[in-house]
UniProtKB/TrEMBL annotation:
<feature type="binding site">
    <location>
        <position position="46"/>
    </location>
    <ligand>
        <name>NADP(+)</name>
    </ligand>
</feature>
<dbReference type="InterPro" id="IPR001282">
    <property type="entry name" value="G6P_DH"/>
</dbReference>
<protein>
    <recommendedName>
        <fullName>Glucose-6-phosphate 1-dehydrogenase</fullName>
        <ecNumber>1.1.1.49</ecNumber>
    </recommendedName>
</protein>
<comment type="similarity">
    <text>Belongs to the glucose-6-phosphate dehydrogenase family.</text>
</comment>
<dbReference type="InterPro" id="IPR019796">
    <property type="entry name" value="G6P_DH_AS"/>
</dbReference>
<comment type="function">
    <text>Catalyzes the oxidation of glucose 6-phosphate to 6-phosphogluconolactone.</text>
</comment>
<keyword id="KW-0313">Glucose metabolism</keyword>
<feature type="binding site">
    <location>
        <position position="180"/>
    </location>
    <ligand>
        <name>substrate</name>
    </ligand>
</feature>
<keyword id="KW-0521">NADP</keyword>
<comment type="pathway">
    <text>Carbohydrate degradation; pentose phosphate pathway; D-ribulose 5-phosphate from D-glucose 6-phosphate (oxidative stage): step 1/3.</text>
</comment>
<dbReference type="InterPro" id="IPR036291">
    <property type="entry name" value="NAD(P)-bd_dom_sf"/>
</dbReference>
<keyword id="KW-0560">Oxidoreductase</keyword>
<feature type="binding site">
    <location>
        <position position="233"/>
    </location>
    <ligand>
        <name>substrate</name>
    </ligand>
</feature>
<feature type="binding site">
    <location>
        <position position="176"/>
    </location>
    <ligand>
        <name>substrate</name>
    </ligand>
</feature>
<dbReference type="InterPro" id="IPR022674">
    <property type="entry name" value="G6P_DH_NAD-bd"/>
</dbReference>
<feature type="domain" description="Glucose-6-phosphate dehydrogenase NAD-binding">
    <location>
        <begin position="9"/>
        <end position="185"/>
    </location>
</feature>
<dbReference type="Pfam" id="PF00479">
    <property type="entry name" value="G6PD_N"/>
</dbReference>
Length: 485
């Protein structure tokens, strides 16, 4: 279903995110016929570019990052003809009258979206200028990228600044993990099936593991990353969102506030993390002559940096459903494989009628978010053959690409889904201000704890599964990581 006519202004329209994600996502939506003819996309940035130069920039972005759905030249040209560009200074006055002029004359009630694809220090000035120039009307929506603050205090300040000019219902805080098809599938699996929900609690679940492993390093984002580290860059937002979707109570309906209220309750129920339940790491240089790269410290040019490129931790939820069930989270860069997976490990059967020699067998539900999106349920069956009642674990395996055909295997990019939702006015997959603050309120003391203790991250070889201490964290509990290790 095409969205209503809209005007979308991308502040930071020549930036990295616009190039890699926003413009290719809009183009792909255009190819699928979801963008109405009268829609307008206006890039705004400091560069004093002509419109032709901006269109050439976008054409290159689409070619490089458009993915498998790139269309023929004619379609690209048609898309480019929808684009406009305004050189604009977010902190000054240059360009604002031109932008006002371009947006004038649109019918009242037309959706106008301002995408803040810029650093957080510009959020306030942009919001103020939009208000000052009369562009912050009731039909206006703003999209705000992460990082949403550096800690609780800065997140509260950002929320307060935005709230001076926009209502919460107009603010779309993006966490692109929520736009991933498979992440939304977590809700479908949990709340669309009768099978899992009755077992989804501490009585039947032994523990839950969430892994987001990456093979990439921090190239091109060194300055930001060395201030953030894996805790702020990944745990506080993406892994926290996955944890919420896995642990939350069923909302009464799939509606923005019903879903976000339940997620907020999860974050607020998280226990403080004990120091011996955290492992931080930093990757070492890779000496492989085919793929050499420097160590973390070498990459960021800070020989004494104590920022973590890897973190593993164990936490708990103090609530009725999950009391006593550990949640293990881990994420890191330059690991051996790119793999995002959630493992729900069920408890052993309470009594084995097959005797001790049949061994221990527990069900495992693995939800693969990327790559090879799908679900595997490990079940126990009899080993075929005449050898008596010997048990063996086998996978019931489903990959979305096979089960759903080519369309299921090539789902829309997270940004396609999220931008469409902004235009439709659906905030379900966006973070509410109180959610972001609650996430920082949990994260801040953990970071303050290791800073006060002066804990240094453990080195780990590039291309490994992370520091060996992360395995110990599990082994101490008689458990092991699944997925990459
Ligand atoms: C971003 C982080 O939010 O997510 C990056 O800032 C990380 O450090 C990226 O690499 C991972 O996203 P994806 O979609 O590649 O899993």
């Amino acid at each position: 279903i095409p969205v209503d006519p809209f005007d979308l202004v991308v502040f930071g329209g020549t930036g990295d995110l616009a190039q890699r994600k926003i413009l290719p996502a809009l183009f792909r939506r255009f190819c699928t016929g979801h963008i109405p003819d009268s829609a307008r996309i206006i890039g705004a940035a400091r560069s004093d570019m002509t419109l032709d130069a901006y269109r050439a920039f976008c054409a290159k972005a689409i070619k490089t990052y458009g993915g498998t759905r790139s269309c023929e030249d004619g379609t690209v040209q048609e898309f480019l003809s929808r684009l406009d560009y305004v050189p604009l200074d977010a902190m000054g006055e240059t360009g604002w009258p031109e932008l006002v002029h371009k947006l004038e004359g649109c019918a009242a009630g037309r959706v106008t979206v301002f995408y803040f694809s810029v650093g957080p220090r510009l959020f306030g000035p942009l919001a103020e200028r939009l208000r000052h120039h009369g562009m912050a009307g009731p039909d206006t929506r703003i999209v705000v990228e992460k990082p949403f603050g550096h800690d609780l205090e800065s997140a509260q300040a950002l929320n307060a600044t935005l709230a001076r000019h926009f209502a919460e219902g107009q603010i779309y805080r993006i966490d692109h993990y929520l736009g991933k098809e498979t992440v939304q599938n977590l809700m479908a699996v949990r709340f669309g099936n009768m099978l899992f929900e009755p077992l989804w609690n501490s009585q039947y679940v032994d523990h839950i593991q969430i892994t987001v492993a990456e093979t990439v390093g921090v190239d091109g984002r060194e300055e930001y990353y060395d201030r953030a580290g894996a805790m702020r860059d990944m745990i506080q937002n993406h892994l926290m969102q996955l944890l919420c979707l896995i642990a939350m109570e069923p909302p009464a309906k799939f509606d923005p506030d019903a879903v976000r209220d339940e997620k907020l309750k999860v974050i607020r129920a998280l226990d403080a993390v004990l120091p011996h339940h955290i492992v931080r790491g930093q990757f070492e240089a890779c000496l492989d002559p085919d793929h050499p790269h420097p160590s973390y410290r070498g990459s960021v040019g800070e020989p004494r940096s104590t920022t973590e490129s890897y973190i593993a931790l164990r936490t708990h939820l103090s609530n009725w459903r999950w009391a006593g069930t550990p949640f293990y989270l881990r994420t890191g860069k330059r690991l051996k494989a790119r793999s995002s997976v959630i493992n729900v490990m069920f408890k052993d059967a309470p009594h084995s009628i097959f005797g001790e020699e049949a061994g221990r067998h527990a069900n495992l539900l693995s939800i693969r978010l990327q790559p090879n999106e799908g679900i595997t349920l490990k079940v126990t069956i009899k080993e075929p053959g005449p050898g008596g009642m010997r048990l063996v674990d086998v996978p019931l395996d489903m990959t979305f690409a096979e089960a759903l055909g080519p369309d299921g295997g090539d789902p829309p990019d997270a940004y396609e889904r999220l931008i469409t939702d902004v235009i439709r006015g659906n905030q379900t997959l966006f973070m509410r201000g109180d959610e972001v603050e609650a996430a920082w309120a949990w994260t801040d003391p953990i970071i303050a704890g290791w800073e006060a203790r002066g804990d240094a991250p453990k080195p780990y070889p590039s291309g490994s599964a992370g520091p060996t201490d992360a395995d110990l964290l599990m082994r101490r509990d008689g458990r092991e990581w699944r997925g990459i290790n």
